Amino acid sequence: MPHAQTATPQKRSSKPGIVESSALLDERGQLIIEHRGKRYQLRETRNGKLILTS
User: Which of 2, 30, 31, 53 could make an SS bond with 42 (beta carbons 3.0 to 4.6 A apart)?
Assistant: First the structure.
């Protein structure tokens, strides 16, 4: 029987992580983010820019 692993808190790096937007956005260019109980929509515009709305 495998041992259960306990998650350990990660230290915050002084540098922000980088994620390609294409890895997050769906085929419509959208992503719903839940943060502290509130939902936000991240979407790509026709001009290729990103907009975050609540």
Answer: 31
Instruction: Give the strand pairing for 30-35 and 38-44.
Output: antiparallel
Domain limits, the chain: 25-53
pLDDT tens-digit map of 16-32: 899 999 999 999 999 99
Question: Residue 22: what are its φ and ψ, rounded to 5°?
Answer: -65, -25
C-alpha to C-alpha distance for 42 and 53, rounded to whole angstroms? 7
Cα–Cα distance, 3 to 24 (Å, whole number): 32
pTM above 0.70, yes or no: no
